[in-house]
Design brief:
The protein has 493 residues and is α+β, with helices and mostly antiparallel strands. It contains 14 helices and 17 strands. Helix 6 runs antiparallel to helix 7, helix 7 packs across helix 11 and helix 7 runs parallel beside helix 13. The chain starts with a helix and ends with a helix. The relative contact order is 0.09.
Length: 493
């Protein structure tokens, strides 16, 4: 299993000593290096520790150098640590040894290239992610394991290899997602990676067309939205047809340093789609993902990337901040819609020219009557301008979605946090629930923009038609259950 892990998880699986058999170069002046170690820390950050008899003024490192890099090279491979940021320093003077310095860098990415491998023989690309969804996802396809065969094999690709021995083990751990221009494997990584995370692999194969890095990024974005988890990319590996590694890259987790990555990975998912549907269909999950990913990739006018990023980033923040970020996404969606060719009104109540024409005789009279209240007059003069609330309402009308009383209540709760109002326990309890309502609502809107027919209600855990608003009776019933569950927690604060 140890040798299998080398090709079934990202590059930095353990501390790597890079001093023996490597020539070291850097754009900072380092001589007398005695130890150089690349590793992951407990937060899964990429760390480079450098020790030696060199003399470096650490205060100048991040000021003097726009980019710091290290290169470790021998006859077989080249390892490059890119975008190194100085983190900490330790200096000592030892008897008989003299001056000794320790520097630690946080590294954005570390890339290993094998010199004796032909990259034209590329057969597959695997991307490695932390923070996958829980066990509730149904992976319906089988992976096969063999005693003497050097790697596991997805059942659909068994005929590609000459395997004469019998199957030694089976795991239902992946799905095959069919898109318009490619296929990819979405696989749960069971045996490798940190135990505090549900780890995922997205695998692209030459036989199914490997898309560009830009398309792969968009697939990751819509997968995070669909699965309800912020998939955190920490590596990618490139293989030939015999699963020999051609190149591998490890990444620093791209999340705020203020967010506890372990806590984030243990949080529950907030999916936009159902993993099962109304009945058990082993390929329901695959079909749902295929529909929504194709729709997202085919949407060329509305750039939803930053909206999706804000939505899954918001899951790492307290409820009071989360609901504000969701509300901001709704405002931005409306703005984006009215700046597109899809709108029939451009978000205007009335054209400014038309308003001035209609009010040409009345405005001077109003101005004279309000001459002591010119601020009031200015508001009347500009009353053709649409407010934020009106813009969202008009946006929903144009895309054919109705918001119910539950969604309106959720939007109101966003304002409580946004304006810093005092929140008694009762309000805090409601906000726990209304945040899930608001997220369900924004998910429903995005799915509508992608021409989907159904959405997943995070408050009742059921699928609903896209045009059906959340029932208010469920708000009252579910809030009572939430109140029972959380009241003791808040009362003990």
């Amino acid at each position: 299993m140890g040798s299998l892990s080398k090709i079934e998880w990202e590059f930095i699986q353990e501390d790597i000593e890079l001093i023996k058999d490597y020539e070291i170069s850097s754009n900072i002046d380092l001589t007398g290096v005695s130890s150089c170690i690349i590793k992951r820390n407990e937060k899964y950050d990429l760390i480079l520790d450098v020790e030696g008899s060199f003399v470096i003024n650490s205060k100048e490192l991040n000021v003097k150098y726009d980019v710091i890099y290290f290169v470790f090279e021998n006859n077989d491979e080249k390892i490059t640590a890119n975008f190194c940021v100085f983190n900490k320093q330790r200096i000592s003077v030892e008897n008989g040894v003299g001056f000794h310095q320790f520097l630690q860098f946080k590294v954005y990415n570390i890339e290993r290239e094998y010199k004796n491998k032909d990259f034209d023989s590329l057969s597959k690309v695997k991307e490695w992610y932390l923070n996958g969804p829980s066990e509730s996802v149904m992976f319906a396809r089988r992976t096969l394991y063999f005693n003497d065969f050097p790697f596991k094999v997805h059942e659909f690709e068994k005929d590609n290899y000459e395997i004469i021995e019998s199957v030694n083990g089976v795991s239902y751990n992946h799905s095959l997602i069919q898109l318009d221009n490619c296929k990819f494997v979405l696989e749960k990584v069971n045996d490798f990676g940190p135990k505090w995370s549900n780890n995922l692999c997205i695998e692209y194969q030459n036989q199914f067309n490997i898309p560009s890095s830009e398309i792969r990024q968009k697939i990751k974005e819509i997968l995070s939205f669909s699965l309800g988890k912020n998939l955190i990319k920490i590596g990618e590996t490139y293989y030939d047809e015999n699963n020999n590694i051609l190149k591998e890259i490890s990444f620093l987790p791209n999340i705020s340093p203020k967010i506890d990555i372990k806590r984030l990975c243990s949080s529950y998912e907030v999916p936009a789609i159902s993993f099962y549907g109304d009945f058990i269909d082993e390929f329901y999950f695959e079909n749902q993902l295929s529909k929504i990913i194709n729709a997202y990739l085919n949407e060329t006018e509305l750039n939803l990337s930053h909206i999706l990023e804000y939505l899954y980033v918001s899951t790492g923040f307290p409820t009071e901040s989360e609901i504000i970020m969701i509300g901001g996404c709704l405002d931005e969606l409306a703005e984006m819609w009215f700046n597109s060719s899809k709108t029939c009104s451009n978000g205007e109540l009335i054209k400014e020219e038309k308003y001035c024409e209609l009010m040409n005789d009345e405005l001077p009279i109003i101005k004279d009557k309000l001459k002591c209240y010119l601020d009031v007059y200015e508001n009347i003069k500009k009353s053709y301008e649409i407010t934020g609330y009106q813009k969202v309402k008009k946006f929903l009308d144009e895309i054919g979605l109705e918001q119910g009383r539950a969604e309106k209540k959720a939007r109101g709760h966003r304002n409580i946090s946004a304006h810093g109002h005092v929140m008694p326990i009762e309000t805090r309890l409601k906000m726990v629930y209304t945040t899930d309502i608001y997220r369900t609502f924004i998910n429903r809107i995005i799915l509508r923009l992608l021409n989907q027919d159904i959405y997943f209600d995070l408050t009742s855990f059921t699928e609903l038609p896209i045009t059906e608003k959340l029932p208010n009776k469920d708000f009252r019933r579910n809030y009572k259950e939430i109140k029972k569950f959380y009241s003791k927690i808040f009362e003990s604060d």
